[in-house]
Amino acid sequence: MNGFELDLFLLLAGLGLVCALGVIPLGTHIVSRKLPDIEIPASRAATASALQGGVLAIGAAGGGLVFAHWAGFELPFFRALMSDEAVPSETWGHVGIGLPLGLASALVAVLLEWRVFWNFLPQGLKEGLDAPAWKRATATLYGGVTEEILTRLFFLSLFAWALSFIWEDGLGHADTPAVWIAILLSALIFGLLHLPATILFAPLTRAVVVRTLALNGVVAIAAGWVFVEYGLLAAMATHWAADVVILLVAPGVQARLVRSGWLVDGEVSARAS
Hints:
Elements: H1 6-20, H2 24-34, H3 42-71, H4 76-81, H5 91-117, H6 123-126, H7 133-163, H8 176-193, H9 195-199, H10 206-230, H11 232-260, E1 263-264, E2 267-268
Antiparallel strand pairs: 1-2
Helix pairs in contact: 1-3, 1-7, 2-3, 2-7, 3-7, 5-10, 5-11, 7-8, 7-11, 8-10, 10-11
């Protein structure tokens, strides 16, 4: 990268901002039900929150491009889109790796919710999402695109670059220990960023905080590894696939398990074993 790539920045910033708007329908639904006495319209509150995320993604796109270059991470797909270069032939194979990893990480997160944390969850978190499917579907764009620009492109790259001063690969880039610590630190940031939304469902007890960090951390570590190995597009695919499971599939399955008596207060019942 010779100098700052303005066209690439505008592409990623625009994607981050537009996809942030995808969370507005779900956010409006949640705010209207969890904060019925709020003084401003739920749609306005949800829009303000989404725009805040979009603005953060714009800044993250700019800083992330710089830190990713310094850390040694490449964005071949997005760079090819903004140039005369052909999209690398391995791009879709990398996406094909990211998608099942996202599904698998989401499955692990859901099983942790039901098998490990269910006994400690307040009722608000056990109720799940009752929003229409289309509202949950558009929210996957926020996670898959906007949050990846913020947490993987920016935070992971920032941590990897900073740690490259300790662990450097001989080419001026982050070596393996720096990369893995950066993956874990960015996963922690990713989990912490979900705590404000969690407050809408339940008080932040120690168990709720640990649960939020753990469940989000599983997905974040998978997406972080994919980002380092295969680039931002594949990481976006990983995160998006995970959100499809968590937002679109798991709520319905959980509701059926509760109604059937397989998922009860305390644990998944013996009938499910």
